[in-house]
Amino acid sequence: VIELTEVSRYYYMGEFVIKALDNVNVRIGTGEYTAIMGPSGSGKSTMMHLVGCLDTPTAGTIYIDAEDTSALNEEDLAYLRNAKIGFVFQQFNLLAKMNALENVMTPLMYAGYPMRRRKEIAENALEQVGLGDRMKHRPNELSGGQKQRIAIARALVNDPSIILADEPTGALDSVTGEQIMDLFEKINSQGKTVIMVTHDPEVSGRCKRVINLRDGHIAEDR
Amino acid sequence: VIELTEVSRYYYMGEFVIKALDNVNVRIGTGEYTAIMGPSGSGKSTMMHLVGCLDTPTAGTIYIDAEDTSALNEEDLAYLRNAKIGFVFQQFNLLAKMNALENVMTPLMYAGYPMRRRKEIAENALEQVGLGDRMKHRPNELSGGQKQRIAIARALVNDPSIILADEPTGALDSVTGEQIMDLFEKINSQGKTVIMVTHDPEVSGRCKRVINLRDGHIAEDR
Ligand SMILES: Nc1ncnc2c1ncn2[C@@H]1O[C@H](COP(=O)(O)OP(=O)(O)OP(=O)(O)O)[C@@H](O)[C@H]1O
Ligand SMILES: Nc1ncnc2c1ncn2[C@@H]1O[C@H](COP(=O)(O)OP(=O)(O)OP(=O)(O)O)[C@@H](O)[C@H]1O
Ligand SMILES: [Mg+2]
Ligand SMILES: [Mg+2]
Question: Is pLDDT at A178 greater than 90 in this prediction?
């Protein structure tokens, strides 16, 4: 369902070029449960942003469901990002002026649900991540792990077929982290494709496939 | 060197009160190497902010080096925060408009060093955390783990006697995380007091004392 063909992402800084990703080739099948690991700065978040259509490659092609993403118009891209793909950001990227419930409701506007239904779906999602009693809190009134869980709830709320999670348990204690991993496994068992960046071998140990990045290349894929 | 006596931190939200910390009593001696653990939302960051004099308690007293922090004037508090205490924030709190080097240099202005010396000290600190080749990058041009390491370098650059680190290896792979732990251990062996919030048992396993928080209380202290 996801295919990267000779994908590179370079950053040009004066006379230097930083090869965040360099000639990456990978295919991920529908319904797979894949972990992406690698040292800090090895290109994991860069790869996730490219797959999530939040960034465009310097070279190479990205296919989502057999479609070349560079050939899609703005409307189809928006559909991909909002309806088909759920993205949990490494830094959460919550909107500071909205509370938890409003943050989780934002992707539902795209799906066209009426207000009352959006509120219901979002409340459910927040209860699923254990934040039923924090719905009216704004991000700066929440702990790190609570913000992370709101980012997760928001990514899942549109029931997307592809979930891209950039270190989704990084700010969580082991018990809460376990609950979140159970949630991702349940979603994967429903046929969704789950790709998760993680530094935690406990997390990658539960994934069927582990891709290791190093300096912008795929070092290992097992 | 750090003492909390019946410290509480409450948040009043309409008709609710959230007891982020509730009647906490703890004494941490000079040169100790203490881990603080507990579930997401249990009050760890709240406790760190109170100890770091970045927040004031709703009740109770906080003593740093035997001084009651509520009795200090603005100048003495600024000295504490800038010179005596180094704080690594859970969300890094880097300044977006400055590059890595400038971010690490900011605490040195307080110490009154001339520009060239500040630059030198900051460059050293960045090399110590493996970011010698990222000095001119701004935070949005850096990976999550790179931002975390800049936050660490900035916290250590004034050679403070108390280091408060809120999940300092949360965004790091195990190898980079090990290097950072070695750095903290080296600092602790020089007599600095190190208090580290962590979810990682590998990290807390290296600390001589582990304090467990739960719902704003100390559940265990060993
Ligand atoms: N806008 C940018 N300009 C220049 N370099 C960048 C930019 N964004 C990222 N980089 C560099 O690209 C490399 C890969 O970054 P990326 O965020 O993908 O790493 P990562 O594997 O997610 O790391 P981490 O585990 O620390 O989050 C890093 O070395 C980073 O410094
Ligand atoms: N400004 C605020 N207003 C209301 N509640 C708050 C505020 N700040 C924090 N809280 C609440 O206080 C509790 C403790 O927060 P704290 O950030 O100390 O948790 P934590 O132990 O650091 O969690 P984590 O491991 O997730 O980072 C949380 O339940 C949080 O929702
Ligand atoms: Mg990353
Ligand atoms: Mg915290």
Answer: yes
Task: Tell me, in angstroms, the distance from the centre of ligand 3 to residue A48's CA.
Answer: 9
Total residue count of chain A as it appears in this document:
222
Residue contact A174–B201, C-beta within 8 A = yes
Under an 8 Å CB criterion, which residues of B touch A? Answer: 11, 13, 37-41, 44-45, 90-91, 136-137, 141-146, 148-149, 166-167, 170-177, 199, 201
* Better-predicted residue by pLDDT, A109 or A136: A136
Find the residue in A nearest to B91 (Cα).
A144
- pLDDT of A169 strictly over 90: yes
A-to-B residue pairs, Cβ atoms closer than 8 angstroms:
82
In chain A, the largest separation of any two C-alpha atoms, in whole Å, equals 54
Average pLDDT (A180-204) is 96
User: A45: helix, coil or strand?
Assistant: helix
The C-alpha atoms of residue A194 and residue A180 are separated, in whole angstroms, by 13
